[in-house]
Amino acid sequence: MKKLTSLLFAFSITALLSLSAFAADSDFLGTWVNMNPNTRGIVKIEITAGLNMRMWGSCTPTPCDNGTTPLVTYGANSSDTNHKVATGMYVFSFKTVGTTLKVISPTRLNFEHFNKFTDGSIRQNYWMLEKFKKLNSSLDLSDL
């Protein structure tokens, strides 16, 4: 009986862990665009299945593709399976960028990025908070 109870407990924990990972994905997935059309920061974020984030920076004449990084999601406490916060990290040759994403609503996302210069320049590290909206998948993304 003790083995059966232990087995059922292990199965329940496994089911809960896989449920929490799945529950978190759906809130983040999609294409997000900066609500500030004049941002000098990040203009677009795409989050795909498996919680991989790709972001584009504000560059001229077209946005810079900063590549992809995995996200880790977080709940409000150790039993919260409805994760609303995620973090990711980018490492470039001249700086590292830590990111924090917080789902505000099904169509709104707060995105913070912490930029630390590693190239020995005199530039100061900086932080930005930007607000994003989720795009409808039927919209044309060619102008972003």
**Major sheet: arrangement of strands:** 4-3-2-1-9-8-7-6-5
> In CATH terms, what is the architecture?
Beta Barrel
Radius of gyration (CA) equals 18 Å
Mean pLDDT over the residues:
84
* DSSP strand count: 9
Computed structural class: alpha+beta
State the helicity in percent bands: 10-25%
**What is the terminal separation in angstroms?**
60 Å
How many DSSP H or I helices? 1
Beta-strand residue percentage = over 45%
Say what oligomer this is: single chain
CATH topology name? Lipocalin
User: Mind telling me the CATH class?
Assistant: Mainly Beta
List the uncertain runs: 4-23, 138-144
The largest β sheet comes out as: 9 strands, antiparallel
Query: Which shape, going by the Cα principal axes?
Result: globular
Number of domains: 1
H/E series: HEEEEEEEEE
Can you characterise this structure?
This protein has about 140 residues and is α+β, with helices and mostly antiparallel strands. The chain has one domain: Lipocalin (Beta Barrel). It is about 20% helix and about 45% strand. The protein is built from 1 helix and 9 strands; from the N terminus they run H-E-E-E-E-E-E-E-E-E. The protein has a 9-stranded antiparallel β-sheet, covered by helices on one side. Strand 7 and strand 8 form a beta hairpin. It is globular. The protein starts with a helix and ends in a 10-residue tail after the last strand. The C terminus is likely disordered.
